[in-house]
Structure formats: C-alpha cells, structure tokens
C-alpha cells in the first residue's frame, strides 16, 4: 500500500455501518438442519456477528453502528450508538477477560433479538414487508444523522462532545436468509433509488437459500458487494475480509465482485418475476401480458390498439386461450 493511500485512509471520516439482520424464524430453522452441508443455527450466527460488530467499533473509536432486525411482517431498531441505554438496564458484572463496552453492546443486541424472536409468531410469508421496512428505517436513520452532522458542523458553538457520529461514508450491510418476495419489488426499488441519492453503498451477504434477484440489483446499483457464502461455518472470515474494510480501502483490496447480475423485474399486475414483459412508455410500469386491459393501470395511458393487435396482445377467444384454435385456423378469432 503506497503512502498516499495510507494517508487517505487516515484522513477518512469515521465509518457508519447499518446492519440489517434477517430474523425469519422459519428460515433459521431450515438453516440449522443437520441435512445441510454446513448447518448454521441462529445462536452460532449471533456469536460470529458480535465479533464482527466489535471489530467494526474497535477499528476506530468514533465509528458508529445501527442494527435493525427484519422479522415477518415488521422491522425494528435493535441497537444504535446514538441511543442512550435504557434506565432499567442492569449494570453488567465486570469480567477480567472481556472489554466492558463491547460486552454491553453484545448484551443489549442479544437481549433485543431474543425479545423480538419470542414475539414473532406470524410465519405466513411476510418477510418482504420486514426487509423493505428495515431498509427504509436504515435510510431514514442515515439521513437523520447526516442532517444532524451538517447542523452541528455549521454551528461554531458546538463542542467536540456534542459532535454526532460522522456519516460521510455510510454503508449498509444486509445479512439475508430469506428468498425473494415479488410483492416487495416496487418499494424495494424505491429504497434503492433513495440509497443512490444518499450515496449509501448496500452490501449483501446471502447466508442461506438461493440467490435473491432484487438484492443483487441493490448491491450493483449502489456500488456495493453481493456475496453468497460457500461455507456458512466460515461466516466470520467472510464478514471480516469482505465487509469490514471501509470504502476507501476497498480500492486496494480484492473485494468480491458480481460476474453477472439478474436484472429481472416483477410485473405490476400479478407481482411475478418475469423475463420478458411490456413496459408503459409513460410511467414505465411493467406488465407480464396486458391481455386484460387496453390502458395502463398505473397512469391511465391508453395503449395503441393497432400495436396491441400487431403484437397479438388483444384478448383471444376462450377456445384459443386454452390452446384450441377455431376450425378455420384464423388468428385473433377472425
């Protein structure tokens, strides 16, 4: 590493990391099954996650952190360095072999996760709402910290003790175990565009399950990294080598890159992921096959009938829709 790179790394502002933890109980139960090649339970995951969190906070004393949990149907803020500890929190006993500030952070995060997991009983496939809500909360939190930082920076009377954590280099890390939910496509894309506006990198670590199309696009469009674990028992090594370094050091490190990105979208009519669809030329709404309408359901723009007839998108008779043609074999029922 040359001198200029080292100097730039020292002059970088403190890093603000927002962790979004997927806490879907059903998926964690599947991940911990012994039939998997490398089973990973929630308790094992949390043990390695706490080490990663401590490493981020220890890398620089003014680094900041926010942890948000995505549960079935809702999301919740689990921990933030901006928040003061609750009044009813009992002081932890000092241990010679543990650093007290780290132990307090680990205890607060673990207790909040346990509380939310005990309350989470709805497993009816509402993980899409929890993930989108968690990303939205993360962006709102980052924007609030940015505004507060600018306000105190412009105030000459502000002291160093009042200075908020700098968020000039904020980033987001999503630890995902749930599959894609096509119903979350529109709000998720809006969140991605908001992250681009705030210049927030979204990193994604796929711990369990198949690739997620929408999170691939989130990482690619915001300049982040998308990583699928090959060995879940080496989670800590993946987190430390790929997601712990700040953005300034990633230029000189061989961070994982996406060889290919799945740019498929979900249609607005049936909320299904489609390979080929029809796009409204006015509002860019996506439809899988507009045979049930002659106008856009989003903006009301009427589609040209001649174009629909030429492309074969006019509603066919019932016999042809079922794969049976009329005796004369003419198209479009004529």
Keywords:
disordered C terminus, Rossmann fold, alpha/beta, 334 residues, 37% helix, globular
Could you explain the architecture of this structure?
This protein is of the alpha/beta class and 334 residues long. It has 2 domains: 220 residues, von Willebrand factor, type A domain (Rossmann fold, 3-Layer(aba) Sandwich), CATH 3.40.50.410; 58 residues, no CATH class. It is 37% helix and 14% strand. The chain has 10 helices and 10 strands. The strands form 3 sheets. Strands 3-2-1-4-5-6 form a 6-stranded mixed sheet. A two-stranded antiparallel ribbon has the order 7-8. Strand 9 and strand 10 form a beta hairpin. The radius of gyration is 24 Å and the shape is globular. The chain starts with a helix and ends in a 13-residue tail after the last helix. The C terminus is likely disordered.
């Amino acid at each position: 590493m040359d001198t200029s790179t080292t100097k730039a790394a020292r002059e970088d502002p403190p890093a603000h990391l927002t962790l979004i933890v997927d806490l879907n109980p059903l998926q964690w139960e599947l991940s911990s099954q012994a039939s998997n090649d490398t089973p990973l339970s929630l308790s094992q995951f949390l043990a390695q996650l706490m080490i990663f969190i401590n490493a981020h906070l220890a890398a620089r004393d003014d680094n900041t952190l926010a942890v948000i949990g995505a549960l079935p149907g809702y999301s919740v803020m689990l921990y933030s360095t901006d928040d003061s500890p609750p009044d009813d929190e009992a002081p932890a006993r000092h241990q010679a072999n543990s650093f007290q500030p780290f132990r307090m952070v680990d205890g607060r995060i673990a207790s909040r996760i346990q509380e939310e997991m005990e309350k989470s009983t709805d497993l009816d496939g509402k993980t899409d709402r929890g993930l989108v809500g968690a990303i939205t909360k993360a962006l709102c939190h980052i924007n609030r910290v940015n505004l507060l930082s600018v306000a105190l920076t412009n105030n000459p009377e502000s002291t160093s003790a009042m200075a908020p954590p700098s968020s000039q280099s904020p980033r987001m890390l999503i630890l995902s175990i749930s599959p894609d939910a096509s119903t979350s496509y529109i709000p998720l894309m809006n969140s991605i565009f908001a992250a681009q506006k705030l210049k927030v990198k979204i990193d994604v670590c796929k711990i369990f399950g198949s690739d997620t199309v929408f999170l691939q696009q989130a990482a690619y469009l915001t300049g982040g990294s998308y990583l699928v674990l090959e060995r879940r028992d080496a989670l800590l090594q993946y987190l430390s080598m790929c997601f712990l370094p700040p953005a300034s050091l990633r230029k000189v490190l061989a961070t994982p890159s996406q060889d290919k990105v799945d740019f498929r979208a979900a249609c607005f009519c049936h909320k299904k992921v489609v390979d080929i669809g029809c796009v409204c030329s006015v509002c860019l709404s996506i439809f899988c096959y507009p045979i049930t309408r002659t106008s856009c359901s989003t903006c009301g723009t009427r589609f040209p009938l001649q174009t629909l007839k030429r492309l074969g998108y006019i509603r066919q008779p019932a016999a042809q829709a079922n794969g049976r043609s009329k005796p004369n074999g003419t198209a479009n029922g004529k």
